[in-house]
Amino acid sequence: MSTVVDKFLKYVTIDTQSDEDSTTSPSTEKQKDLARLLVGELKEMGASDVRMDEEYGYVYATIPSTLKEEGKEVPVIGFIAHMDTSPAVSGKDVKPRIVENYDGKDIVLNQELNIILPVEENPELLEYEGKKLIVTDGTTLLGADDKAGVAEIMTMAQTLLAHPEKEHGTIRIAFTPDEEVGRGVDHFDVEGFQADYAYTVDGGALGELEYESFNAAGARLHVNGYSVHPGSAKNKMLNAILLAQEFQSLLPVFETPAATEGYEGFYHADRMTGTVESAQADYIIRDHSRELFEKKKAYFREAADFLNKKYGKEIFTVEMQDSYYNMKEKIYPENAHLIDTAVKAMEEAGVTPLIAPIRGGTDGSRLSFMGLPCPNLCTGGMNYHGRYEYVCIESMEKCVEIILNIISLYAEHGIEKKIK
């Protein structure tokens, strides 16, 4: 049987980068290349109900229950990962390399281009001394976000299907496109998935367990300037580029991603284009508190209104749309067994649980509000969305063990208020 490493090394060579500017779904057809491969592998393993949504690219499968005790109530548990990689850095021609017995020193990713993964800037590397790491060649991202999660779920499926003597309830599997561009569950078939609860496998370092996410919105600022020859522009020109900068100056300077952590929210200027006559800026607005989130959105609009009043005309317009909400509202305390079970599963694997809020969102954020409570599990990956991304092999193997432990715990205990 292939290992989680074998699967991961195969999956990362398939370019599945999503495109935030695309209006299609999925945003890139190449994501379906991995989807088709996964469908073939699931069928070969012997999974049931394997299907691919040919239009949107989702993959679904079932591992049937092996429970012998009739009448035992065990919930149907789903495991979900996304197939796409971030648009931030190229995912084409990924060349992964295994660093055996990591020595705790800087890692030369590409000697020819002098691309180095330095310990000084990545002190957490020291935690992996003596272990095996998978790194890039420094010219692309690796794709551990979230192909590590895909590989771990596929390895779990392979293990259970190869050992029908292991008792477990019905397990659902899903792989989604376009998570990185915020559209991962736009067409997810929650009703057809038929899971009572689920976990996304899309976190970072080993032990991470997340059931709190940001509330999130996207905002687009349009600035209408007035262009005139700069030689005769006095008291006439309205430079849209400078006006956009003026708008940015009204936002709290310490409420940016670079100045916040933990539960602190932010405004993030993500992209800006423009000329003297017209400019456009894209923002994301985040906060764990729904109340503070709503206040941030209101303040953003008020800043535009203030400047329109200042200039006596409608120069600034705002488009805003909520993206997802804090999944804690749907998970804790009503469905706290999802967290209790995951904690116990990690402890049984010899892993220390690291429960912390996600400073972002996952497919589970939206799925939780679509009727499928869905916290997030670790994958073992680090430095996502960049050329310095890496994943620890031992961590990936432990993640598979954690998933299998969760399944065993539900088979043994069902749903308990607190798994002892």
TrEMBL record:
Main location: cytoplasm
Residues annotated to bind Zn(2+) 2: 145, 180, 385
UniProt keyword terms in alphabetical order: Aminopeptidase, Cytoplasm, Hydrolase, Metal-binding, Metalloprotease, Protease, Zinc
Active site: 84, 179 (proton acceptor)
GO CC, alphabetical: cytosol
UniProt: Zn(2+) 1 binding residues: 82, 145, 202
Domain named Peptidase M20 dimerisation: residues: 211-311
CDD domains in alphabetical order: M20_peptT (cd03892)
Comment on bound cofactor: Binds 2 Zn(2+) ions per subunit.
EC assignment: 3.4.11.4
Catalysed reactions, semicolon-separated: Release of the N-terminal residue from a tripeptide
Record's keyword annotation contains Ion transport: no
UniProt keyword Hydrolase, yes or no: yes
Subcellular location: Cytoplasm
Cofactor(s) named in the record: Zn(2+)
GO biological process, one term: peptide catabolic process
Family matches, as NCBIfam families: peptidase-T (TIGR01882), PRK05469.1 (NF003976), PRK13381.1 (NF009920)
Purpose of the protein: Cleaves the N-terminal amino acid of tripeptides.
Protein name: Peptidase T
The species this protein was found in: Eisenbergiella tayi
Taxonomy of the source species: Bacteria, Bacillati, Bacillota, Clostridia, Lachnospirales
